[in-house]
Design goal:
single chain; 322 residues; mainly alpha; two-stranded parallel ribbon; elongated
Length: 322
């Protein structure tokens, strides 16, 4: 009788501490990063990407549109058993518990890709930041439910499209554009290995501020990909030796006056589309002609402000229209 009572009490306690108040899986969309609106010149060159208030840049790709090296790198680095478990890795949990017990607090995660998606898209930001056993158990329950509702490929696509890569880039395509100035489809093995290593600590491994730390992390990803048979050692060595060219400024803005004019028009005319689906907008601007005109205007302003005639007064001009 005592055992039955104890079991009931434990069940009630587990429900109150872990199951009560868990968000339903069908609320997954509420945690998605909102899509960005991208403005292009008439030839398809990106002028600027504008993000909804309070969110980072985000472009959603189909799984087949993400380079294979990026997909394999994520699995090798984050969850080697991804395709063989039901959302939770018992081995990973046991390893994390052992580390946590030895450390006296919850210091190791052991989170699968599915758990990471569940935590980032279903738990609120304050709950995500908690390093407690209760939060970990809630994450485990949500991961199991998530894996029952979605296929493995769908969960992997969610990770690739929604994970924070730093510098306001959510998803691998936004990260590719932020760090390398190119779409994800053009990424090399070396670039994929660097990007998929960032989510563990986007600030610590930011290649724009800490290229040495990012390079070290890239080496870890390549080593794990080699150990798990995704690439051979020669390929890993070649990728390690690649000289990576980073974007000078994440998402630079071109033709800023024109971009802001178009943005104000979009806000007034297409508010629902901006915040529901995002827009890709092709403008009439020819960026080459625009840049040439800008250089001419700057040259003329400089000429007016520094006249050849030593007796002439500088015009003190600071703006121009063409």
């Amino acid at each position: 009788m005592t055992t039955v009572v104890l079991t009931v009490l434990l069940g009630i306690g587990f429900y109150a501490a872990v199951l009560h108040g868990l968000p339903p899986i069908d609320e997954l969309d509420a945690g998605l990063a909102l899509p960005s609106t991208r403005l292009f010149d008439r030839n398809g060159r990106l002028l600027y990407e504008i993000t909804p208030d309070g969110t980072g840049r985000n472009s959603v790709l189909g799984l087949d549109d993400v380079p294979l090296h990026c997909r394999n790198g994520v699995i090798a680095t984050e969850d080697a058993e991804f395709y063989n478990h039901a959302g939770v890795s018992l081995r990973g949990i046991a390893r994390a518990l052992w580390v946590n017990v030895r450390g006296g607090e919850v210091i190791a995660g052991g989170s699968t890709i599915t758990q990471q998606v569940a935590r980032n898209l279903l738990l609120d930001p304050r709950a995500r930041a908690e390093r407690t056993l209760q939060r970990k158990l809630r994450e485990v329950v949500l991961a199991v439910r998530l894996q029952r509702a979605y296929s493995k490929d769908e969960v992997l696509a969610l990770w690739l499209n929604q994970t924070d890569f730093g510098n306001l880039a959510y998803g691998v395509d936004a990260a590719a554009r932020a760090y390398f100035g190119k779409p994800a489809s053009d990424l090399s093995l070396a670039e994929c290995a660097l990007l998929v290593g960032l989510p563990q600590s986007p600030v610590l491994y930011d290649p724009l501020t800490n290229p040495d730390g990012a390079k070290t992390r890239q080496g870890t990803v390549l080593r794990l990909m080699t150990e798990q048979g995704y690439i051979d050692e020669a390929t890993a060595d070649e990728a390690t030796a690649d000289d990576l060219q980073y974007a000078a400024v994440p998402y630079p803005i071109e033709a800023p006056h024109a971009v802001m004019t178009v943005w104000r028009h979009l806000q007034a005319t297409y508010p629902d589309e901006l915040y529901d689906d995002g827009l890709d907008v092709v403008t009439t601007i020819d960026l080459d002609w625009h840049n040439a005109t800008e250089r001419i205007a700057q040259r003329e302003i400089a000429r007016l402000n520094t006249p050849d005639d030593p007796n002439a007064l500088p015009a003190n001009a600071n703006n121009a229209g063409v």
